[in-house]
Amino acid sequence: GAVVSQHPSRVICKSGTSVKIECRSLDFQATTMFWYRQFPKQSLMLMATSNEGSKATYEQGVEKDKFLINHASLTLSTLTVTSAHPEDSSFYICSAVPGQGATGELFFGEGSRLTVL
Amino acid sequence: AQSVTQLGSHVSVSEGALVLLRCNYSSSVPPYLFWYVQYPNQGLQLLLKYTSAATLVKGINGFEAEFKKSETSFHLTKPSAHMSDAAEYFCAVTGPSGNTPLVFGKGTRLSVIA
Q1: What per-residue string of b and e applies to A11-47 under the rule 16 or more CB within 10 Å gives b?
Q2: A27 has a pLDDT exceeding 60
Q3: Which chain B residues are closer than 8 Å to A111 by Cβ?
Q4: How far apart are CA A87 and CA A100, in angstroms?
């Protein structure tokens, strides 16, 4: 099946620094990728929709200047958490849609756990 | 707009007993429905999906779900629980247009008692 790889799986950083998380579709091209955030023992909340070659679309309440999304190629989207603070600590998961997404199925990365000290 | 309601944030069953995790959806368009499983500190693994074909869907690890339009439900079942089934389960919905995000329920944590 389709594979989505996310890196790093875990990252610990100091408050005020920036962290980049990569999401790669390994065996298919993805014009659209989605970024989700999951707080402990909670569900996944959509943060933004990443479109190759264009600006990301952010959900209401998500700061676009804090969570920078770049979708530079059909196989890579990156999420940069800028000037991270402890409240940004969370589990971030990306997902991608193969081709035109006719089945509606998303393939998920393994997730990246961010801890901000 | 679409939404999913998972009844019961925590379900506990004995090993070998029936597993039933409930999911009701709301959708203004024909829904595509999914069940995912998440183990601690891991991503999501697809268990099964309904995409307007057969209403009874069989997935991995012995799980199955039945789409019932009249009840707007997509409950997940497994005849006999195994210890390895203990995890968090998410029901999700999207529309058939493609390239649209999934909307997730709040999740149900399944515990299996020996």
Answers
A1: bebeeeeebebbbbbeebebbbbbbbbbeeeebbbbb
A2: yes
A3: 41-43
A4: 35
